[in-house]
Amino acid sequence: MLVLDRTFSVAPMMDWTTRDYRALARTLTRRALLYTEMVTTGAILHGRPRERFLGYSDVEHPLALQLGGSDPGELAECAAIAETWGYDEVNLNVGCPSDRVQNNLIGACLMAHPDKVAAAVRAMREAVSIPVTVKCRIGIDAQDEDKDLEHFIATVADAGCQVFILHARKAWLEGLSPKQNRDVPPLNYGRVHRLKANRPELHIGINGGITTLETCREQLDHVDSVMVGREAYQNPWLLAGVDEAFFGAHGPASSRHAAAVAFRPYIARRLEEGAKLNHVTRHLLGLFQGQPGGRRFRRHLSENAHRSGAGLTVFDDALALVPQREAALVD
Predict the structure, then answer these.
(1) Do 243 and 265 fall into the same domain?
(2) Residue 38, SS3 per DSSP
(3) Which of 59, 120, 223, 274 has the lowest tally of Cβ within 10 angstroms?
(4) Are 120 and 70 in contact (CB under 8 A)?
């Protein structure tokens, strides 16, 4: 079985961690583990072309596919497909609080069904040789964050899962929207730390509200890995410090400007494949956050990349609004 260094990873985020964002991330970090958006078993088994849901560029490795589903047979089949497609890990979503996925017994609601999650994990592990992992919350609704979480982890671990990434908040499936569930329930990092202390044989990762590499370092005193979500998307330059901070290696980008230039050939390829410019460049909008010319860069792309026939000239013109010398100096 392939052993991945998952010390630092970027969280799966719907509509955000697309293949285009992940390619951008690779201009900033070679070592961070990247995750796809959640892909449901139904999309993989019945959607066509399958490339739409599973396609990626080789540069994205190490790369994990996050699956949404609850039927063990379907999840096992999808895990096997993921391995055939070359993914390095399959992760089961047990954390999404959306009403839409709840109706299909997907996401955080599965925390109330540890036996079902265990059956799914067991089936997936029997179907593949790549790691099968679980991303979950510390509980849902009125669950006890100690007793119920311990029972969930123990049940799923007994099925062979050795890696759990915990969003350190409860999900309130009744009374809060998915957006509110990202911020309103209080963070409880201590609960995840205690889980690691109680189950040292398991790999325990932490996620939720982490916005700086310094905070990541502090968390690694208590857990095995850190997963960063929205900050890694809205401020992608954060990733430029990951390789040196956690892997002892130089990152690929010397400046934000250099990262944007390195991303240009990828944009050109995607345009040749028929992608729309704004679908690719929307992931770049936060790259020059707070930098000279950053606002003009963002505005130019926002106002022009969606236009019919928009191509590389729009990107080049936007990048020209960022003073290259200043961009390098402030980094």
Answers:
(1) no
(2) strand
(3) 274
(4) yes
List all residues 6 or more positions away from 69 whose beta carbon is below 8 Å from its beta carbon.
40, 41, 42, 75, 78, 92, 104, 106, 120
Has residue 1 got a pLDDT over 60?
no
pLDDT of residue 275: 95
In a domain, 1, yes or no: no
How many domains does the structure of the chain reveal? 2
Catalytic residue among 96, 136, 161, 216: 96
Q: What is the pTM of this model?
A: 0.94
In this predicted structure, the answer to whether residue 155 has a pLDDT above a threshold of 90 is yes
Does 138 lie in the same domain as 261?
Answer: no
Catalytic (active site) residue 96: yes
Counting other chains too, the contacts that 237-242 makes at CB distance below 8 Å and 24 or more residues apart are: 237/28, 237/287, 237/289, 237/331, 238/211, 238/212, 238/213, 239/10, 239/25, 239/28, 239/29, 239/32, 240/28, 240/29, 240/331, 241/213, 242/8, 242/28, 242/29, 242/31, 242/32, 242/213
Residue 190 and residue 76 in one domain: yes
Q: Give the domain range for residue 108.
A: 8-247
Same domain, yes or no: 193 and 269: no
Q: Helix, strand or coil for residue 171?
A: strand
- Residues making up the annotated binding site for FMN are 12-14, 66, 135, 167, 207-209, 229-230
Question: Roughly what angle, to the nearest 10 degrees, separates helices 312-320 and 256-272?
Answer: 170
Q: H-type helices in 159-225, by residue range?
A: 189-198, 213-219
In this structure, the answer to whether residues 159 and 281 fall within a common structural domain is no
Which one of 212, 247, 282 terminates a domain?
247
